[in-house]
Amino acid sequence: MDYEVKLEIFEGPLDLLLHLINKNEVDIFDIPIATITDQYLGYLELMKTFNINVAGDFLVMASTLIHIKSKMLLPGSHEDDEEEDPRAEIMRPLLEYMQFKEMAEAFSEREILDRDVFARTVIPYSQDGVTGEEPELDVSLFQLIDAFKRIVDQRLPGTKLTVQHEQWSVKDKTELIIARLKEKGAIFFREIFSEDRTVSEFIVTFLALLELVHMGLVKVLQPTSEGDIRLIPSFDEKGGNGNES
Amino acid sequence: MKRVETVTNHNIMSKSLKLIIEALLFASDRPLNVREINACLPDETGSKITQALYELQTEYDGLKRSFVLREVAQGFQLRTRSEYAPYVLRMLKTSPTRLSRAALETLAIIAYKQPILRQEIERLRGVDVGGILRTLLEKDLVRIMGRKNLPGRPLIYGTTKKFLAVFDLKDLGSLPKLKEIKEFGSDEEETIPISEEETQMGTSEPKND
Amino acid sequence: MKRVETVTNHNIMSKSLKLIIEALLFASDRPLNVREINACLPDETGSKITQALYELQTEYDGLKRSFVLREVAQGFQLRTRSEYAPYVLRMLKTSPTRLSRAALETLAIIAYKQPILRQEIERLRGVDVGGILRTLLEKDLVRIMGRKNLPGRPLIYGTTKKFLAVFDLKDLGSLPKLKEIKEFGSDEEETIPISEEETQMGTSEPKND
Q1: Residue finishing a domain among C68, C88, C108
Q2: Which of B28, B84, B143 minimises the CB distance to C23?
Q3: Does B205 fall in a domain?
Q4: Residue B33 contacts by C-beta under 8 Å, 6 or more apart in sequence?
Q5: What residues in A contact B208, CB-CB < 8 Å?
Q6: Does the beta carbon of C64 lie under 8 angstroms from any beta carbon of chain A?
Q7: For the domain that residue C34 is a member of, what is the CATH number?
Q8: B60 and B8 within one domain
Q9: For chain C, how many structural domains are there in total?
Q10: A219 and A181 fall within a common domain
Q11: pLDDT digits (tens, 9 = 90+) for A43-86
């Protein structure tokens, strides 16, 4: 028999069978079972020659084919209307398989998300009330606190972190930060402390920032681990606090 | 650009409604359905929101922007047009969503036959599908729906909402109709078209012929 | 250098350039600067890209859409206008929350090992889980089932009804058994590159419907 089998990795026995049927351009409703069986077995032989492990599924199909072939050879068995065509045993699963292969093709031709089309990838706001366990931050809370400590050390060397009478409320400072972000769009972390005079003011400013980050209104970015931390409004910088008209 | 004429009160309202909905869609990273939009706009009715959504859809098409409003996974989502994919992929520096042919076939079987057992999938594909099922579960395209009351209590599989979103489907009802088996003739080549475009796009699916 | 192209050609070019840039900005989760955009469009010059960006800016303002193109510290970003903030915030508040990897791992341990003591979870994860447990309790994914009759009467944890709903499980028996998960095996061929987006959207995020 003169045929050529490309050594392909077939998904399974049905895949191989379908390939052989297509290659021989035969009718799936009238499969020349002897030819197809020979080619199928030839392919398995080839796989063995190339030391490719032949999965059990392929061998089960091989014996099914041989069985059908022998049944077909029995005189009269496939002429008889009373009895079902022995080939129905593989025809039905093949047809079903073709059906899903076609659907798989149809799927792959669709406009697939993240292959053909893209949606918005909005930075999610952190929504949960109390915990800082899953902050949607590009910088860790630790880094932020560390940076805060550095600034305090720099600006107020030797000062003890004692809390004095509070002149500023967190709310005041929150508004100040928002005002600055509105004005400038993005600011450096240290800038929000530029007018702070006392440790308590520092702390209040810092708490205000944490609050804003927590509410998802400010995003903290640090381009490199050495770089200056930057604050950007994570909403439109004209709004931010979300209760303007 | 059609009418601008009389700005009645109603027009102002519906114009702002459309824009509010646009803002919501714009700020969301997942499809939003009418109910969800309504929750943000309690003074509006669902039907007005639906109408506004369809108007937006027409509007984007008319404006010929780079994005469109698609109805997917029982919701609405803004998406870029497919012709911009090469640029976006370059910008995102990621490889596109890829599914092997085997994974797609398995997915198709699950989509059409759900709820389905693993053994049924394997009967239809003629091979073991353990690894593929895992991939599909990991990618959140397939989910475990429960267990069948059979010996061994086998797991039942079905598709997810993400499956609908990824494959641009409104709901399971909008899956392309399965061809009746009778309709299959011998003209194999015609019933299984292979997209040229896909080969160009460099998807990883190996073709077998 | 003066422009060499004819005006017509230039117009066509910049129109499609604008739309490509729009698609990039649309699909990006962070501001893009001219250099980054140029990297996706190597045939264009920086100045043409800058010009297109400003044209887009004017265009959105003119169209009075709900979003604008803002020039921020790191580049250009599409953002919703501030007047839509209240609606957007309302929408985002009702969005599904994401679970961190740590939370998900802890939840998995509780789901499979319940009833379980905190110290057993910590032994398995190798870290303190106090904070995560609190989060899971707050999110109503985990509940306190009682106390164990041991010194200190430690609390016993288990999953909730909401846990089942979130993970789309009919009952706890529908959770795949560890043995079944193993049986899925790992299929070498199925190591499919997953885009960043998908990693975010994938299995680490519970669906809320």
Answers
A1: C88
A2: B84
A3: no
A4: B74, B75, B76
A5: 8, 10-11, 15, 19
A6: no
A7: 1.10.10.10
A8: yes
A9: 2
A10: yes
A11: 888 877 776 677 788 888 999 999 998 888 876 655 555 567 88
Distance from CA of C57 to the nearest CA of A (A): 15
Angstrom distance (rounded) from CA A245 to CA A239: 9
**Are C40 and C75 in the same domain?**
yes
Number of domains chain A is built from:
2
CB contact under 8 A, B178 and A104: no
Q: Average of pLDDT values for C164-168?
A: 75
Confirm whether C201 is domain-assigned.
no
Contact check, Cβ <8 Å, C202/B67? no
The mean pLDDT of C138-148, rounded to a whole number, is: 89
Concatenated DSSP letters of B39-60: HH-TTS-HHHHHHHHHHHHHHH
User: Per residue in A109-126, pLDDT tens?
Assistant: 999 999 999 999 875 444
Shortest Cα distance, chain B CAs vs residue C146, angstroms:
28
Q: Which residues contact B101 (CB under 8 A, 6 or more apart)?
A: A11, A104, A108, B205, B206, B207, B208
DSSP state of C17: H
Domain that holds residue A19: 13-108
User: Cβ of A134 and C30 within 8 Å?
Assistant: no
With CB atoms and an 8 Å threshold, state whether C83 touches A239.
yes
Greatest mean pLDDT among A72-86, B102-116, C58-72, C139-153: B102-116
Which residues in chain A have their CB less than 8 angstroms from residue C99's CB? 134
* C-beta pairs of B3-6 under 8 Å, 24+ apart in sequence: none
CB contact under 8 A, C74 and A221: yes
What's the ipTM?
0.73
Asked whether residue B132 is assigned to any structural domain, the reply reads: yes
Residues B82 and B101 in one domain: no
Asked if the structure places residue B21 within a domain, the reply is yes
Please name which of C199, C85, B78 lies closest in space to residue A216, comparing C-alpha atoms.
Answer: C85
Cβ pairs A/B, distance under 8 A? 162
Q: Are B155 and C170 inside 8 Å of each other by CB?
A: no
CA distance B180 to chain C (A): 30
Domain containing residue B175: 97-191
Identify which of C84, C187, C209 has the shortest CB distance to residue B132: C187
Contact (CB, 8 A) for A194 and A179: no
pTM (whole model) above 0.90: no
Decide: C30 and C77 in contact? Cβ < 8 Å.
Answer: yes
